[in-house]
Amino acid sequence: MTKGKKNKAVAAKTNGSNKSCAEAIAPCLLTPPGTPPINGFKIFNKNYGNGTNRSPTVAWEREFIGLFLLEMGDSQEISARNDWYVDKMKMRRLFEVHLGKCSNYVELRIKLSANGPCNIGSLMQRTNFLRNTPRGSTNYQIKNFALMEFRREKFNAIDEMRRLPDQITFIEPGANVEGSLEGKLIEQYVLDTEAAAMPLMYQKTQVLPSTNFELNSMGCYICEHHFESIEKYEEHVEHHGDESDFKSLERMTKFSEPMVTLSYQTCVDSHYFGFTLKTDLKDVVLQKFIIVQSRQFYYVYNGRMPVTMPESGEKVFFVDSQVFTILREMPIVIGFTSKGQRYVEQHHFMRTTALPKAMFNINSYRLSSKEIFRGKGLSRANPPTQVVHALKHNDAQQRLVEYDKHYRNYCEQGRALTQGNIGGALRTLLQVEDIERLQHYLGLKQSKVELHQFGRELSVKMQLPSANNGSVEDILSPGDDVLIINERVLHGSPDGIRKLLENSNLVLELALKDFDSIIKWARSLEEKMGSLMKQPRVYFARILGVSTQRVHITCERQLADNTTYTLIFRPVRAVMRYQYRALEQLGWTNSQHVQRILFPEEIPRKPVAIGALKLHNQLISRNPEQMQAVQQIALCPKLPAPYIVVGPPGTGKTATICEAIYQLFVCRPETHILVLAGSNTACDEIALRLLRAIAKAPETQPRPLTRIFSACCDRRIDNIDDLLLEYSNLYAVHFYPAVQAVHQYRIVVCTLSLAGKLSTGGFALDDGERPVFSHVFIDEAAASTEAECLMGITCTISSTTNLILSGDHKQLGPILQSHRANEWGLSESLYERLLQRKCYQVDAEGAYNAGVQTRLIRNYRSHPEIVSLYSDLYYNGELKAEAPIENVSLVKSWFHTTNEDFPIMFHSVFGTVMNTKWSVSLCNNKEIDAVMDYVKDLMYFGINGKPVAQTDIGIISPYKNQYQRIQEQLNMRNWSQIDCGSVELFQGKEKQIIIVSFVRSFTPKLGFLDNQRRLNVLLSRPMSLLIMIGNPRTLSQNHDFRRIIELCRARRTLVGVPYFLDETGSKVVNGAASGEAGESEMVKRESVGHTQIRTSPKNDTKDNARSELDKLFDELPKVPRYVDPSSDAVRSVTAQMMKLQVDKKTKVVAKLTENGPAKSNSVPLKPTPQTTASAKILTTAARAATAQTSTPLSIPTSSNRAHHYINYKPTAPEMTPPRTSTNGRGSTVYSHVPTGSTRFEDLRAPSEQYSYSNQHRGPTEYTHIPTGSARFEDFRASFEQHSYRNQPHFSTNHSNNGRRPEEPKPQKKKSTCTIS
């Protein structure tokens, strides 16, 4: 077992099972003091987050009552589902029971009585946990926002202790544990003496002035400065980090020798690093040990500083390796004093390797490493110059049609592949992808670069042209090649080489040349520019990792100093070349075999094969669709066409495939099985399931299965299961086995690209050139292009080959870098194309040919409501939820669950999107806060007191900048087992709880959020709970998001900042109308200091009591913010409106139409935009009174109504990343996915699109018509005066889905909304 795995095992025991930190770390935070203070501590002049005044409270009383209420919440005695009402008699009885459990019951009773009545009602009133209820009511109503605030105080206090590294006591090796240390959490770290000590690179030193600077949580010790906002703090941290190229070093001085030295080593059986600090100076006192992360400073041993250096001048600091980012140059700053003078000294650390790998004993079933793979060569397959030149023109497709006859036929057929054009058409499309991918790489060429090596490794700060809107991370990948060209010139112009390499055609040629050709070119260059003697002109290097603006490279040769270099990045074209080879092989293959496998004709329907099967997974016998697939695959001697398993999310697609393979292995020993997939994750999952099933098989074989890994998997060895490693080519040092050794195994599992590589060495053919494999399975076939699938098909295709494809074409599709190749059809998968063939069609009754396909419809993953959501959106409501309800109801009685029967929550957050200067990826700090509040609540309090495992939680964000920031927060708390990443990372995974941050807020477009396939994957990951966090107004631009948000509103799970509907049915966000009310009327419910309107199945009969004048005013437009409320025009128009006397609505309309213009003309108006807008109010009112006020859900553009966008500040250019997930032809990013149903199309008219260009971008301060009724007041002013960051994120409008305790009907009040 690797050291990383041992650490994970320890983490699983301590954190994974998650003994609540409430129990393990800080019991004092969750229990009241034994004896309350005599006088108590009173809190004065405090307000709740919503602005409500809090009366003075006694601190210990508030603590005691708050903890009692939290206990009642965990036991569901009080909850959101009954609107926080609780029967008075029951509450009094429970409180007495709670008091009776206290050891100091008598003394506590006396203390409670000293401050007034000690009944629970009075105590809750005194501690501000009780709402005022009508006299005579039989119920108490808890102030939910006060209780939420108290709950957050508790888990933030625990969190603060969790984040402090000083909570763990370190002891020296061999020391005895005694005294006060007994029973505490103690960890002992021992430096690995066999590991080499790696020195850190000294940078510079700075002398600090003698000041009394007191550091706070948003301050910089190095610069001695505090920041007022988190945004400015993070921007300053970047000033110290690699994203700014370490600009802070400009203020420092480089000494000839550092004052202190730093080196690090690994520790024995631990993931900690030991940093050894040495100095020859005397009287040194260490003040700070600072690690500069990407967006914050990490202070090591902060609670123990300052520390006096021992006499030996050497001290070791143990630091969790999770603090660092692999392949990222990170500053470590040491603050210290010597002889009264303060210094800070900066050293740089870069972690380039993982922890030591596992070593196992040799077993007989391992792949033999005595003979290794030897390929028979692979042609360069460079794209022809005709295609290169064609792509430089706007009419590129027409030129390609003229160049290639097969591509012409493909276009004439309506971009349809046929047996005659498939080879040529796919080859041309591949060449387009190949060339445009190369152009993305060559656009990153760097010139005049100074390079500094860390041993073999070096870090390059990328300088991108301003016109380049892409991201380095979207283009470069680990393993890509780098040509490092020395720019030194001995003869001619000093910048001769740079000018030579400005020729784009030459650079393209270099990118396509092989090693020998580049050496020849370098020699010819030296003849012109002069020889560098012992130094080579061109160095060959490889990319280790890519960060936001840095590329980390390894080079075997030592680079020359005092010179500059040009860097040319080249993609590894091996996979592309394997695809070219597969297309070439396709031309040699028997046409009948090609027709049966790739172009099956109509096949007569026959009964599914029948036979006796002894199932490993007995649950499959209860699922007729799964059983049908297993029987047909395992028992049919020869499949008439490729067998397709259509597997929507959670329907057991992988279980079906694994059971079919297992039955072939057990029941048909003559079979030989090849399992392929586009991703390593899918291959690992299938191989691991099969190994566990085969271990229980009645008869075992010496070589049942092998998993072949590519060389790049060596970097992720710590994340690979030990059992899988044993049956792979990665059990020790990675090697590629000889194909003859691979053929000895019954089941071979590898990726499609690796099958393409092995095919160059005779893979899948025996010594007699006969096919080896009888069955070929391709999992996730819908996520791979047809050319990629052909890498695994062309080497195995024969008259006896059985091909089985599984996947879901409504989830994420292939990933391409070329916009045009995507649009022109390369992104269509073989899986999706075959489903369009006649033999796979489904008739009107839902029947299909079971001999060539099965369509799984029974979901065993998720809660029925979650299944219903994405089934209705994307699968025509065909999916059936059959997961045992007890397995998917983990959070049914969670404290924050507002509807126990609907585990889908939308948390409304109106944040601001940001991006760095060096990345177009977006982030949203308010959504990060909301995400972390949910995670901390789950991890510290659990669900009803039961701990939640880290592995039960998954966090998804579509933007890398966002999920990286969230991951940093998780790493600070050692929550390494909580998965956090993009939608692509989660495809194929499932979690009990999924939390999603959508990031985009007040942006005119949704980018790749506007993508059905991505949303489908996201919605189908959770088992028990889905929490979506985002700006509902922005997301409502998309029909599917709008439908989800309105569904949450109807089911009372729309929580957070108010996003509500006005009484005319238009969507209102803090006063701005946008859209339709929905299917039901609205009722007002108080929530966390504001009045939020939610949908309700009941009709509001009280609305009829409102005057006709009130209703008319509702239809009038809001006054635009740019109108001066003190102007004569506005005063005059307002006065006229208030004097209107109405008997009937029709008379009002007539009167406004007749008299409005005349009265408007009598007002002295200046010819300004402001007065012009004001003068139009009356005519607009007349139109509003006669027009329909309810329209389909839509996003209105600017009109006479004032639509204002809160704090809209565009912070990022349009997202046009080269690498995108393509979803069939024409995804929402590059192309359009044909759905065949307008139900999924965007039905908005062009005029209904968002238009931000004319919006005023100042602070939102609305004027309003003084009506004498708060109902007409603008709700947004007070809303925007508050900082969202100070809001309680759990400020939810919790409503009762069922019956609540009897409560007198509230009187209709004026709506005075103060939003927290």
Automatic annotation (TrEMBL):
GO molecular function per UniProt: 5'-3' RNA helicase activity; RNA binding
Gene Ontology annotations for the cellular component aspect, listed alphabetically: cytosol; P granule
Biased composition (Basic residues): 1307-1316
Annotated segments matching region Disordered: 1077-1104, 1250-1316
Source species: Drosophila madeirensis
Alphabetical list of Gene3D superfamilies matching this protein: P-loop containing nucleotide triphosphate hydrolases
Pfam families assigned: AAA_11, AAA_12
Keyword presence, NAD: no
Domain C2H2-type: 220-240
Protein name according to UniProt: C2H2-type domain-containing protein
InterPro entries: DNA2/NAM7-like, DNA2/NAM7-like_C, DNA2/NAM7_AAA_11, MOV-10/SDE3_DEXXQ/H-box, P-loop_NTPase, SF1_C_Upf1, Znf_C2H2_type
Keywords noted in UniProt: RNA-mediated gene silencing
Composition skew (Basic and acidic residues), residue ranges: 1271-1283
One of the GO biological process terms: regulatory ncRNA-mediated post-transcriptional gene silencing
